[in-house]
Known about the structure:
The complex is a heterodimer.
Chain A: H1 20-29, H2 36-54, E1 64-67, H3 75-88, E2 95-99, H4 102-114, H5 116-122, E3 133-134, E4 146-150, E5 162-167, H6 179-187, E6 191-197, H7 206-215, H8 222-237, H9 244-262, E7 266-267, H10 278-281, E8 284-287, H11 296-314, H12 333-345, H13 353-371, H14 375-389, E9 394-397, H15 401-414, H16 425-436, H17 446-456, H18 459-468, H19 477-483, H20 495-508, H21 510-519, E10 535-538, H22 558-564, E11 572-575, E12 591-594, H23 601-608, H24 617-621, E13 625-628, H25 636-649, H26 668-690
Parallel strand pairs in A: 1-6, 1-7, 2-4, 2-5, 3-4, 5-6, 8-13, 9-11, 9-12, 10-11, 12-13
Chain B: E1 21-29, H1 35-46, H2 58-73, E2 78-82, H3 94-97, E3 108-111, E4 119-120, E5 124-130, E6 138-145, H4 151-155, E7 157-158, E8 161-168, H5 174-178, H6 183-193, H7 201-208, E9 217-221, E10 224-226, H8 228-233, H9 241-244, E11 252-257, H10 266-274, E12 278-288, H11 293-296, H12 304-312, E13 316-320, E14 344-345, E15 348-354, E16 357-363, H13 369-372, E17 374-375, E18 381-383, E19 385-393, E20 425-432, E21 436-443, E22 450-455, E23 458-462, E24 466-467, E25 473-479, E26 489-494, E27 497-505, H14 509-512, H15 522-536, H16 542-546, H17 575-599, H18 604-629, H19 635-651
Parallel strand pairs in B: 1-2, 2-3, 4-19, 7-14, 11-12, 12-13, 20-27
Antiparallel strand pairs in B: 1-5, 5-6, 6-8, 9-19, 10-18, 11-15, 15-16, 16-19, 17-18, 20-21, 21-25, 22-23, 22-26, 24-25, 26-27
Helix pairs in contact in B: 2-15, 6-7, 15-18, 17-18, 17-19, 18-19
Amino acid sequence: MLPIEPLGLSANQWQFLSAPSRYVEASARSGRRLVPDSTRRQFLTARDILARLNGSCGEEARRGILLADDVGLGKTTVAALVAWVVASAGEKRGVRILAPNDVMMRRWEDELKSHVGPLQECARHLGVQANRVKARRVGRLSAGSIQVVKHSYAASDLPLACDLLIVDEAHRAKGEGTAFSAALKRQKKYARRVLILTATPFSIRLDELQRMLTLIGGEAAHGPVRAFSRVLDALYGGNTARSPEVVAERLATKAKAAVEALSAFVIRHGINDLPGEQKSFGVGADWNIDVPPARSKELELMMRMDRSLRVAKAAGSESAKATNDPRFHVGWRHFDAVRARLKSEVPQFAEPAKAVVEHQLKSIKGLREEVGTHSKIDAVAAELKTAIQQGEKVVVFCHHIATAQELTARLDSVLPEVTIPPLPMPVWTNAWKEVLEPADHEYHDERLCATFVDWLCADLNRAQTWSWLPAATEVDLVDALRTARGRCPTGPETIAEAARRLYHSLLQSKSSRAVLKEAEGDPERLPGANGASRVLGVCPPSEHGQEQSLFIHNQQPDTVISIFNSPFGPDVLVVTDKLSEGIDLHRYCRCLVHYELDPSPIRTVQRNGRLRRVNSWAAATDQPIRYAYPAFHGTRDHRLVQIMKKRIDSFSLLLGGVQDFDVEEVVGSEEEWRNQVIARAKVRLAAAGGQLRAKEPGAT
Amino acid sequence: MSSAEFGWQSLLHTDAPSACSLQAALFTTYDRADDRLLAEHLLPLLLKLSREPDGEGAERQYFLLELDRRLKQLHDRLVVVSSTAREEPGDAEDGESGTYGWIWRSIRHLTVGSRGKAVQHAKLWLLHWGATDADGVEYLEIVVSSANLTRAAFKGQLQAAWRACIELGPKRSEARLDRWGVLPEFLRELAVQSGEDDRLEPFISLLGRADCPEGVSFVASVPGRHSDQVLRRAPWGAAGLREIAPSGRGRVSVDILCPFVGSWNADALHRWCARFEGLPGRLALVWIDKHHPWARAAKWLLPEATLRTLSGAGASLLHLRHGPDDCQQTGPFHREHRPADDRWSHAKVYSFKRGNSRRMLVTSANFSPAAWGKQTDDGELVIENFELGVCVEQVAWPFDQLHEFDNEQDAATVSELPTCGSALIRWARAAWDGKKVEVDCRCEAGRELVGTIRNPGDEVSITNWTVDPDGHLRSAQVPWADSERPPSLVRLTCEQERVSVPVFDKRPPRDRENALPPEVDKDVAQMMRDELLFEQYGGRFAADAAGEEPAHSDSEAGEEDEGGAPGRPDSYSVWAFDLARRHLGVVDNWADQVKGAAMRDTGALERQWLRRDGELLIEAFERQAARDGTKGTAGAVGAKLAAEELTLRLKHFPEA
């Protein structure tokens, strides 16, 4: 093992972390007000990390720390504070942050920069400057700089020499053979300290967790972690004839031992362990969406397709892979695409497969005409219409693109049409211009601002804004915008503040600036600019020409995310799991629909974390976060929902150690047995998990 | 005995590869074949039934239906030939009320005696195994033994048997057939005497497709008076012994193990020995003393006069002792044989030795003139029985260690052999075509013959016999159209003699398909048959399928079930989908078998079965759809799809 070089910090240099209230006040002045309760915990966590990394306050210096807080607790905030202290204190140091993708890179950049103001006020001695954040490649990292790059950067030939390497979403370094995993192994020796961020330490493969522990010098925990991991494996794949009591005892014991071994290197808070902060996250609540059971004709369609594909497969078809594709259970678009493909292959089949498939396709064609719109899509669209009429924004997660496309198109056809407000357009334009001035942003540009105002004046935004204004007139529109709040009278900001914040957010992002620029000549580039569509699909656009406008036009979702985090723009965002990690959708949305589940409980938890975050809309408006798991009764979709709901209930208890599953393979009695085991071990598991919380440095 | 090798079930075994299926079988036996032995032991083995006969309730019904189905598939392809057994008072009602009398609707039961007096004493099994593997190899399995098809023969007796399983060539060859020696001709004679001249021709053809194993030859007896000329062509009885005796110089000695010794005089004994260049003085008979349990039970019989003949001719009598019951010493019959074994030896084994060469004959033939023939003064050989033996090279004779009796007076003997009176009813057969029962019977001319046709609930007298000119062959046709209660048995009585003949069902396949074993509950039979048919093609084990219910009675009801209330018992998968896949899995398995059979030249019978099964599966799935539909409309879809697809696939069924 390499010797641990001193970091050369002094606890005095992060003294400001002991005064979170002052920092919260400063954050409000800089435009991003932090939440006191959460800030207190985040600051404690940052202090704990710094003390352990530096070896202060009686702590032994450690090579690294794994921060494994639940989704939404603000790991990025904690790590950003740590990064600023390490980079800026005393003799200054170099910090590198590895983020999984461009979106996350920008988020890091925003996060780091959002602390510049408060730090300048509360920790002047650090002398932080926004320009020390380098969200790009740099030849040599200068002292005092924080570089933000993608995971892939680690794989380059450049040695990532630095004083602190922060690896975000580290669980993406899957598999011994992946480039990122190999690169981390190689780069480890160039980083004096490592801070790893992941919400799901036990959701990943054991060897991956072991590699993470190795990165942070936590080899001592390998044995107990392996033992706990084995118990988890046995829970999900072992003999279910064993006594639940015995297995529960073993599970709790091994969890405790693993936690004890990890506690030197791992800090973790579960969202359920923080009752004091619940108010700032929002409380989750079930949102029941009634979906009628599958009609027998719908089931027959799926079964006929399953059969056709099986026969086709046996006849040599290469396209007949997933015969009971999960997409067939939640929509017809992929189903129809497969049907068309199969039809083109039929002439090549030998008899009797040819006759069988031809017959099935003929029957399918007739049934499809009878069945029409998918029942689940219909039911969910109807429910979303109601939610939107109540002023909500909704994010809908799909697992597949075809499903997202189909749902987007259906929602577009059923959501209420926009009612054009009475005031003339120039009145709106002038009002918005007035509201946005002065536009004190480094990237402010009159033309960009004009484009943004044009977008604010689009039919949809005008209609929305008008609905939030109590009784505005041509004369007092500006005042109304400056006093009324978007979507909810108790919202956190006025309409004007929201517009200004959105404008700044768009300017902050390079890709959003580009979109604004393009939108000058092509307003459709900005979501909602077409003035009619209340729904936006964040996935590749469908091939149906008339649907093109319902989808984003590039693969950079920054603009969409920024707009969705404002009161303006599309009310419904239909997204795939590309947006299930690392991004915020919580600023104006408290309604999430799992239209189509991924079989991974981690994914589901990650999705939920998009809304259950500090400063959520639910918390701001004192309403619950609504999670909907609409299930298509009678199909595998329904089964998937049943199992998933149980598994995510135990997610936090098992430190994220809840395994993926194949719905076809899950045996009911075995799942029941697992739930019994977890129920019996619940109290002890919760107590064990609590030991990983951050503690006051030096406290015993 | 528990050993599989030496237990009572050791003959209940096949050497054919496990994937093979029986396509035809011939069994010969002296005693009337025991229904229970066939139905509960032999047929389940050979037909590879998945159910046990001793199950209770539904399991028992499934067994009966499975057996019935396989027998119907092999209708008229299983043949049993026996002697015409007159009934003893004790078993008078047995034939009528027997649990398994119905199996004879499909099994052709023949008796010898249609052309004159004859006893069927051979014990031959010929089993034709069809291929189910892609290689298409079929087999002929031959068993020659001393075992009759009775439970007593299997459970109460020690038997000697020879077995071979031989790959069949694609085509019959006369050269191959010749290498089987007298066996093909033996089968022809047996068929003629059974009144069905061509009935055994398929088995002769099988011999023409199989190579007789190296070093194996057959010795057979057929009843009749055979001239030298005939015997040169077909050396029946003792005439065949010369061909199997070891070649060389010097006299042939013979050791004999058999439980029944006939009446021999010195001349007959000498002539018998001369047939294989032997001498009575070189004959050794393995025998028991009068205290031996087999003697006390009158199982081994040796006339006193014959003993004197043997002694007088210089033959040896080797003393087979019975050790104390608690003795663990191995006996000569088998390394696992112990004195406590209460089975008696029914084996008939002859060991011929010349010089150092030894050949062993495993046969049905006792050491009697009735079996081997009695030579008349004009040189003809008069044989009473059908007998069959197989001769193989042999190194050791397990009775070599026996010593001669110290005193031959100790040998177990009988003063006279039991006599069987001349049979009045020599031969009979009965068949039903759906409209009438046809009965043929060879009975002593001029005697009154009373006949009745029965099923468990009915009895109809036979009143109008027609008699052929010589007065022996009588025939009757009795109307019987009740397919609900098919005729099972014809009982013939002539004076004190009574013979029961099972009625063979010769209706067209579709008409006989629905007949049920009497024990089966008609109300559930159809469902059970469907399930068995599904099971045959990989469907769920039928008894399990019967109790299957979805967790919620109607998947369209919309109620929210929790994780513990799965779609199919104990699973989170979707019941309707599972059901559909299971049903369609049956179609797949059926289709795979059709494909396999289409690739085999020899798959004609299999194709015939598969085609019919395909038709039956369609009907079964249509019924299943109605059953599944009661648990939720979506449940019916799978069976409906299966029936649909089978209909399509049958349109493309590969013909030969």
